[in-house]
Specification:
Layout: E1 3-7, H1 12-23, E2 27-32, E3 45-48, H2 54-60, E4 67-70, H3 78-81, H4 87-107, E5 112-118, H5 148-167, E6 170-176, E7 179-180, H6 193-203, E8 209-213, E9 219-221, E10 223-224, H7 225-236, E11 245-247, E12 252-254, H8 255-266, E13 271-275, H9 289-295, H10 303-324
Parallel strand pairs: 1-2, 1-4, 2-3, 4-5, 5-6, 6-11, 7-10, 8-13
Antiparallel strand pairs: 9-12
Helix pairs in contact: 1-7, 4-5, 6-8, 6-10, 8-10
């Protein structure tokens, strides 16, 4: 039986990854500040602890571990990342986790490690045309991320690649593009666009309106969680390619189009009201040429199919919350 450690196992992607690894027959140890919010963890062991503490990192890395997945980070949606109010925490917390994990995983003899970077590392200048953003893996330099979150991710990419070169580790670095799906944060300020839009639509009364930050013309692509996890697993099976690699969809939409799609699922007649707020870059879309070349595979789920599942789940959470209140 192969064994794996998932750091950030109480979070959205970590919860789904643990589930997938268990179905593949792994012994799984999870580590996080908290247990999953929406379901019971399927991990065989779950260590509650702060990975900013090297003693906690040493504890979670004990024993034989065939694979380590480092997903833990201080993160959230645009309302958390782009206001600038949390920059110091984002930089300090995530960098400390990665400095600990790189050093102590190497000391523990870990060879196969996965690090979840982000499309936020791509240069701001390449994402000003909403119709033609440039997010090819080799376009990251000269570096100019649009947020401190992106700068920390870029630093940590270089950190792990340095450990690969100097210590013979095999850290795969993937850049996630807007992962969404059930069991994600859907309220409280750290929710990302798909969940936030679903919540606003689910909560809105018939004939009402929902607020969208900016003019809604900014473009993005969004990847359903099952395909993200599939990409992670395929990447970890690569023996001679370590990235960086985009894991995302090439189906690009405007935020207005995404909102109209969700309104359509609801069956309600709602108006969109544009207000000022953090929006990030004007355009971002995954470039999947490299993943097609390396894996002979790429994500293929249609956005509307994933967003329908997302809306149904968020709507159920809204209804449950109303019932409990």
């Amino acid at each position: 039986m192969r064994s794996a450690l998932v750091c950030g196992a109480g979070g959205f992607i970590g919860t789904h990854l643990v589930r997938r690894l268990k179905r593949a027959g792994y012994f799984v140890r999870g580590a996080d500040l908290k247990y999953p919010e929406f379901s019971k963890t399927e991990a065989d062991e779950f260590i509650i602890g702060d990975l900013r503490d090297p003693l906690v990192c040493e504890k979670v890395l004990q024993g034989k571990l065939d694979e380590v997945y480092q997903l833990a980070a201080d993160m959230g949606g645009a309302g958390y990342i782009f206001t600038g109010e949390h920059d110091a925490d984002v930089m300090h917390n995530s960098a400390t986790i990665n400095l600990n994990m790189a050093h102590l995983a190497q000391k523990a003899g870990v060879k196969d490690l996965f690090y979840s970077s982000s499309a936020c590392i791509y240069p701001n200048r390449n994402q000003q045309d909403p119709n033609n953003p440039m997010c090819r893996e080799d376009s990251a330099y000269p570096a100019d991320p649009d947020s401190e979150y992106g700068w920390e991710k870029l630093f940590s990419e270089r950190l792990y690649f340095s450990f690969n070169r100097n210590y013979g580790m095999k850290t795969r670095v993937a850049r996630f593009h807007n992962i969404f799906g059930p069991e994600t944060v859907w309220q409280g300020g750290r929710d990302k666009a798909p969940a936030a839009i679903c919540r606003k639509v689910a909560e809105a009364p018939e004939g009402g309106e929902i607020e969208i930050w900016g003019d809604g013309k900014q473009t993005r692509s969004f990847l359903y969680i099952d395909e993200c996890v599939e990409g992670i697993r395929r990447f970890m099976q690569q023996e001679d390619f370590f990235g960086p690699l985009n894991i995302g969809s090439e189906e690009m939409v405007t935020i207005n189009q995404l909102t109209e799609m969700v309104i359509g699922f609801s069956g309600k007649h709602l108006k969109i009201k544009h207000i000022s707020g953090p929006t990030g870059v004007k355009g971002r879309n995954s470039d999947n040429a490299l993943i097609r070349e390396k894996f002979n595979w790429e994500p293929s789920m249609k956005l509307k199919d994933g967003m329908l599942k997302m809306y149904e789940w968020v709507n159920s959470q809204v209804l449950r919350s109303r019932k409990n209140n």
